[in-house]
Structure to design on (436 residues):
């Protein structure tokens, strides 16, 4: 069968990698893809939000199944258009995607469905947000606050402020950070605890959990500096106790899926829950309506069941009949980013050491922001030892995800960092405390 993956980042590389492992797959297309994805799929230059062009391509190239990687495609209604044309596609409709595309909608949904979450206020203007903060709704001047852009902001629309003055500064600066996505602002109580990400496949009524993950959002060691799209993830079973997992299922997952049905948008695809483990129990921070990036990289290297079978079960509502298996143990992904990220990343720097890093046992390298450039030298692709007249250069903020598996989380981290030590380019950034 033929597969189309929509997107261009490390998440989409991990999806193409997973589909390539299926004996049932003949061809994989990725729109638009990136230089690393070209090693496992045929990249096609179609915009991720151009539903008409994507449907036309899928029709002409006899695509049997499409998988939407990113949130902007989902918010733009790509799934709705494919379904209108009777084409199989994995991802939620525009109505269901509001759980991510509007944080204000998501918070109101949580409240309607009785899902435990932080206290919040939706504010239509910056002036109203400042007024709410000054009203003392979230405590005194020394109390921390979370300031969120309502719309999609590529993982950069959340600012954690340690006190009211910092919160007001965050409100005023949100426009420059998030653009139009920050026109409406969500203020949230600052919860204290440990974060964990719970992802699942969902077919409208039933769900299958993936290994729990933890993301590291801030750019610097010790959780310092501004938020990014994610600088590294780990997965291992100890992230949630059995009791905590049952609470998440009973108090968050099942009410969410029931609520989606009750409100007329049964959820089909991948649902991501950002959860804070507080002294009062798990509380939901946010929904994402697709795989996270780099959570996808750490999770999918542990998937042992054919991804095609899972996708078919999602589309046909048969997840309850499928036994999804995962490699036991742990995994870790270290993100390597360009100089200047998360602001204005520097591009065009040659990437050295990819071949050596890829040869470390247990390592898979996923490309997020790379392109091929003629150098007149033998290139290290990370996938082939054959000489090439081109080499990889940086082409974005987050450039590579170095992913490793291990029996224990310490094993996976040591392996990943061993591979990272073999890669370099001028100004390369990465965190040295992922998993700690």
């Amino acid at each position: 069968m033929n597969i189309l993956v929509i997107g261009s980042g490390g998440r989409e590389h991990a999806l193409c990698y997973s589909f390539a492992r299926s004996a049932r797959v003949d061809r994989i297309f990725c729109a638009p893809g990136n230089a690393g994805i070209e090693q496992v799929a045929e990249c096609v230059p179609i915009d991720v939000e151009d539903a008409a062009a994507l449907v036309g391509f899928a029709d002409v190239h006899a695509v049997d199944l499409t998988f939407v990687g990113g949130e902007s495609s989902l918010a733009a209604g790509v799934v709705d258009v494919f379904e209108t044309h009777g084409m199989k596609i994995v991802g939620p409709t525009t109505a269901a995607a509001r759980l991510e595309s509007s944080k204000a909608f998501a918070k109101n949904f949580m409240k309607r469905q009785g899902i435990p979450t932080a206290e919040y206020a939706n504010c239509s203007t910056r002036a109203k947000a400042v007024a709410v903060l000054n009203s003392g709704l979230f405590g005194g001047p020394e109390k921390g606050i979370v300031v969120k852009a309502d719309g999609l902001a590529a993982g950069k629309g959340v600012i954690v402020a340690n006190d009211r003055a910092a919160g007001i500064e965050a409100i005023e600066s949100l426009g420059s950070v998030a653009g139009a996505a920050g026109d409406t602002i969500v203020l949230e109580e600052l919860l204290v605890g440990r974060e964990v990400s719970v992802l699942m496949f969902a077919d409208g009524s039933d769900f299958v959990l993936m290994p729990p993950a933890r993301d590291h959002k801030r750019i610097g060691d010790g959780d310092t500096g501004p938020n990014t799209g994610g600088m590294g993830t780990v997965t291992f079973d100890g992230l949630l106790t059995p009791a905590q997992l049952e609470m998440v299922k009973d108090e968050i997952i099942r009410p969410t899926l029931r609520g989606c049905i009750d409100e007329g948008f049964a959820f089909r695809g991948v649902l991501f829950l950002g959860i804070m483990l507080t002294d009062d129990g798990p509380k939901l921070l946010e929904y994402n309506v697709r795989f996270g990036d780099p959570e996808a990289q750490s999770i999918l290297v542990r998937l042992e069941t054919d991804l095609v079978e899972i996708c078919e079960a999602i589309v046909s509502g048969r997840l309850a009949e499928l036994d999804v298996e995962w490699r036991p143990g742990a995994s870790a992904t270290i993100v390597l980013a360009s100089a200047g990220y998360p602001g204005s990343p520097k591009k065009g720097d040659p990437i050295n050491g990819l071949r050596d890093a890829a040869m470390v046992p247990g390592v898979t390298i996923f490309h997020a922001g790379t392109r091929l450039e003629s150098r007149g030298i033998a290139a290290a692709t990370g996938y082939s030892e054959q000489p090439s007249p081109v080499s990889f250069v940086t082409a974005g903020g987050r450039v590579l995800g170095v992913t490793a598996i291990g029996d224990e989380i310490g094993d996976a981290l040591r392996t990943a960092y061993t591979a990272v030590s073999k890669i370099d380019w001028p100004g390369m950034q990465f965190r040295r405390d992922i998993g700690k």
